[in-house]
Amino acid sequence: MPSQSAPTLDSVAARAGVSRATAGRVLSGYARVSENAREAVLKAAAELSYVPNQAARSLVTRRSGSVALVVVEPVERFFADSYFPLVLSGAQAQLAEREVQLVLVVLSTQRERERFERYARGGHVDGAIFVSVHGADPLPQHLREAGLPVVLSGRPYDEGSSVPFVSADNVAGARTAAAHLLERGCRRVVTVTGPMDMRVGQERLEGFRAELRAHRQRWNAALAAPGDFSVDGGRAATEALLERWPDLDGVFAANDLMAAGALQALAAAGRSVPGDVRVVGFDDAPLAAAATPPLTTVRQPVIAMGRELARMVLALVDGQESVPDVVAPTELVQRATT
Amino acid sequence: MPSQSAPTLDSVAARAGVSRATAGRVLSGYARVSENAREAVLKAAAELSYVPNQAARSLVTRRSGSVALVVVEPVERFFADSYFPLVLSGAQAQLAEREVQLVLVVLSTQRERERFERYARGGHVDGAIFVSVHGADPLPQHLREAGLPVVLSGRPYDEGSSVPFVSADNVAGARTAAAHLLERGCRRVVTVTGPMDMRVGQERLEGFRAELRAHRQRWNAALAAPGDFSVDGGRAATEALLERWPDLDGVFAANDLMAAGALQALAAAGRSVPGDVRVVGFDDAPLAAAATPPLTTVRQPVIAMGRELARMVLALVDGQESVPDVVAPTELVQRATT
DNA sequence: CTGAAAGCGCTTACAG
DNA sequence: CTGAAAGCGCTTACAG
């Protein structure tokens, strides 16, 4: 039990020679208070190292002073990927500036989902940022309808969703990747796709196809092999592609993990990169710069996207009616695989 | 403003036909209550989806129901590495089982450090888990002395520290790595070390040297090149080593990021792996399995270590006087670089 | 075992 | 602008 003697509002009021109400007014911000009183209170608070008791404050304001960052399901895998930690980091930074706590919530079981729903509806957090929502998970929408400010990382799968989101411009990014491969002289460009039941998977494939079309390349479904955003998936898909198209000389993998798998498959097949085959990934995960050879990839501004997510919930928490979706620009980072 | 009508203890008491005190007793656990009353209260609570108001509870119990996971300083770099997210994930899981919230705190500036110190001393969290402490940062010890339960990820640099910690068995892990290289027939084994102002850097070098000594290999300071746990550092150190020891045929890098850099340097120098040179990393970061070729490495059970950290703070929070340090075993994961 | 009551530390109308 | 007072939703001695 730390500091049995933590200073209270009363003690700073006493020291400043004003009432608790006045002290409270200067410390909690807004109300008009005389310059004299304000200074005295601030001085007293500083001298006592006063920190308001958040529990007491919450009890009356019905604001918890915290926002949940919720991760749905495949926890460990998710944490091992770099996307999540970086979104988290961005959101945390933004929230910290407003002195709101970021509470990390992981939902694996049905019980946990139910408990969180009650918890959130009970006003124990002021808002929620969902990362990694699967398919058309109704939870975010539910909570929103219950009046809780909610935002999503990634465009929702469900077209009818009215939950604001921030997403990278996946279509444009994939187009950039394809264009780059073509510009580098590739003649037979293939792609390892993400899961087709995820928007991000669909969009990156869509961008790739659109760019080939723009270059008057004939599209063929066999040019794409499905992956699952994992290294193993990327390796397997690349092996299949190699079999199908012995003459392939360009690979666009829909994320860096799969691109790493592609690099492994290519090395195993004795193809040199970028000599025989050029490869582009997506995300600019830390692993991209660590690959052999270092991977050319499409960067998405993940940390900035995390900040944006936080900014959006906060606006909603502050009473703003609605908030526009944001689609963040991507950028090609050329390294050694092209 | 979610659910203006969140059920309170009073409403469940009324529905159950008992007093608020009785309802409180059954819901908050311990006290003896008649079976009848208990059932009625539980039923009423379930029907109303009652969730206790944590703010009100905290106000009286002086327990926040939350634990801080604090990260010191080099935020983004730290988040990009896989160690942190995995510790976080383990700690979160363990905390969730006890229904305590994990609040993520990042301390970059001096102001933030001071604010957090006041905040923690003010009882706004029940305990703190420090990850990534630099050198002999006095903050954890400070807080501990102020009565806050604190635990550390990694053995403290400061010998005088009395803060409990959990660490991987770095010495043993490094010995395993060196032994493996030697057993695979390497004759000239070198190492890329971590920063020498970090315990983990020192320990991994110590283990490496000890194992060479055990194999009656003559030690030479030039066999070690300093890295900084980054890919670039690993690449540069390996280049230096290659220059110094043209005949090197085994590299132990003190973490996987640097091992990835070593792989890049070796490829650039035209050395094949594992044909000409064998390489072992440390951590078994996700990047290890994604490397080309897939990296042999020493795994540390990071998620389990995160859980252990949480278990330890919780024990301290529950009033346990002290808690023993834990040193987690490591394990060699052989892949394709050896 | 159970109820009435006090009190945790704030915020915020309500008067003045 | 400022103070006295009520009240947020719990927990916990204190009686019974």
UniProtKB/TrEMBL annotation, chains A, B:
CDD domains in the record, alphabetically?
A: HTH_LacI (cd01392), PBP1_LacI_sugar_binding-like (cd06267)
Q: Give the Gene Ontology MF terms in alphabetical order.
A: DNA binding
Using the record's annotation, list all stretches that form the HTH lacI-type domain. Answer: 7-61
Q: Does the keyword Transcription regulation apply?
A: yes
SMART domains per record = HTH_LACI (SM00354)
Record keywords, A-Z: DNA-binding, Transcription, Transcription regulation
Q: Record's superkingdom?
A: Bacteria
Fetch the InterPro entries from UniProt. Answer: HTH_LacI, LacI/GalR-like_sensor, Lambda_DNA-bd_dom_sf, Peripla_BP_I
- Disulfide bond: present as a keyword of the record? no
Q: Which Pfam families match?
A: LacI, Peripla_BP_3
Query: What name does the UniProt record give this protein?
Result: LacI family DNA-binding transcriptional regulator
Question: Which organism encodes this protein?
Answer: Kineococcus endophyticus
Which taxonomic lineage is given here? Bacteria, Bacillati, Actinomycetota, Actinomycetes, Kineosporiales
